[in-house]
């Protein structure tokens, strides 16, 4: 197979997924912020909350459509660029995607139209219900896509069937209640909530700095500070490393993040700094915080975190067993009833994927010599320096957001909306959640390499039978189209923010405050 | 777990469900595509264009999900079909995607600035977003009928031996243009229900009348080519219908009039093409007699008839291979496992009715004709 086709297919997938994921987090979080704001409108009946909901709703809309537009590509891309992958795991992987369409996409797409066009056609309560359905739909869609992605990291509930030459489902509940998927879901949607809170807080800070739309800005600031604080705690505490102790590849991911070349006695230390090298297989200038890693990764003082070298040794044994499974499959191709081959297959089928790793070096894995097996075993180690640093940037930003929102929350509760240094800082913080989120995606995906499906299918076998010119055509096309749309989107966002909200309808702020009702969140 | 339905029964059910999803897409998002393709031609000036756009703006997004769900369901239930058709028609798929990507942004962003250049630019983007998918989907169906140049090796790895230009042959072009005519007619049918009486409606119906006649002519030509054009396939040997999905076990052959064989065995199948011809005729009569509901009913029947006739002609084929007799995909060799088909059927039986309920509610909330008065006064309109 042509490695250029594989690399270009990966590049296209990364570009389109990372781009899609610029818009999704804001949709995930802003939809729930809209629900909170509109609930306040329905409960207090104060027109300013309607103005607030409609203003952030407008920004939500500009962002939402690009999420939808680029999501189309994602739904088609497994088939267009990863045909063998689609065949090999479609029996399991296709199901969550189809359920996502039925349960989530219909919900968000149908109700989003009513959200924008239903203001004068629906009662207040009905409109709030519609907004809530949009939020529910977007978040459910994250659930199903992460069940699909979680299965790639931890392929539970499936087995290879030699009669169809693919993975088939054996236990559907194991696919759905995959612990890796659960951890990923909570972590990812929380990250989206953080992004949206930072977005709302930053723009509110801008309005406060300029002295514009103050009633809107103060209330939005307060809502975002509270929601952001809760979300930033959730994103760190429920980080998806909680699933890392589960499987070999997840263990490898953890070892790579920590650049832990050898197993250490429990509880292992956490490397705060270091310069790891895949070639030298060691980390230079390491600074370790004792015990911390063992506590984080295993949630105990006795749990052992396995090192890279030990995991590679395991992989070598699995390749040996995988070669037997591969040989059995080749015999079963000729005669599906061959009892000896069937027995050997049943014994070794769990390791079939490890034999496929050898296909990078030899056409027939059964011909591989010791040196090739050694080489293939070491390909199970992902890019350690990249993992090490990407994780540290992401996690560092996670802790930063907790402090940031903690401060914002204090200011909001004390109604100190005049701390200009903080307001200015809040503007600069706006891009940071996106950095953390994109890093999170990169970490999860390069951490899974060399596998497309952990232990089952190497990435380099998954691609379609395409040519390099075909791939360059689509990469250039998507880049041009997406690039243009990004420029347009950002400009429209800036214009909408400059223009600010619509004026508040008639009685507005003139109405005296109702002392018995819900207290306003901020003085005007 | 024992599964109460046989594998072959589930395969037929999922074949039918695939048809339901594709028809659901063509019936709902089909008129959005048609309306977008008509936009620059039937509406002059910004107000008229906004009139047309706002007939579909609140509901098109939900309609498009039929397509996304269609792709997801084919992935889940027919992974071979998903893999072969999406990667085989690679650049055609890219064309469709690029065109479809223009729609959500087109609808939303057009209204954000008032300059004429900005708005007419997005109008043409919407036109492309309507026309190109309609055309390419039709061409793709034409290629499915012709068979595609692919084969599997013993690992069931797919090899495709063709490019973008090979997709365009006289027959597939006819299929593509038929799809455009059908959806333009359906777009005119939708506008007949959704915009106030006036100049725009009349122009739309004039286009609709032409599209109806063109659809009938192209559909007839297509059928004539099936009868005399040496198109069609037959299964020469196949394992039991409940065997594991493996295309290599089936042998097929190209045979003239192959796509008409089902009609000879089951004459009631003629109902589908009959609808395909009657639908446009009914729509045409509706336009002539100014009965707006009849226009939409006719265009809907046309869509249902034409798409079902493809399924009726090809069953049990889904995607024949034109270069390898042991690679064709059929209902009996290209599905997911028994278990997956069963679980996905349960999920669909629970969720699809819920979807239909709230979708109907959404259409009910937005019920009624859009007027130029609304366009001028409603701040939420695009």
Task: Give a verbal description of the structure.
The complex is a heterodimer of chains A (524) and B (382). With 524 residues, chain A is mainly α. Helix content of chain A is 69%, strand content 6%. In chain A, the strands form three sheets. Chain A has a two-stranded antiparallel sheet with strand order 1-2. In chain A, strands 3-4 form a two-stranded antiparallel ribbon. A two-stranded antiparallel sheet of chain A has the order 5-6. In chain A, helix 6 crosses helix 15. The C terminus of chain A is likely disordered. Chain B has 382 residues and is mainly alpha-helical. Chain B has one domain. In chain B, 69% of the residues lie in helices and 5% in strands. Chain B has 13 helices and six strands. Chain B has a two-stranded antiparallel sheet. Chain B has a two-stranded antiparallel sheet with strand order 3-4. A two-stranded antiparallel ribbon of chain B has the order 5-6. Chain B is globular, with a radius of gyration of 21 Å. In chain B, 57% of the residues are buried. At the A-B interface, helix 2, helix 3, strand 2 and helix 17 of A face helix 3, helix 4, helix 5, strand 2 and helix 12 of B.
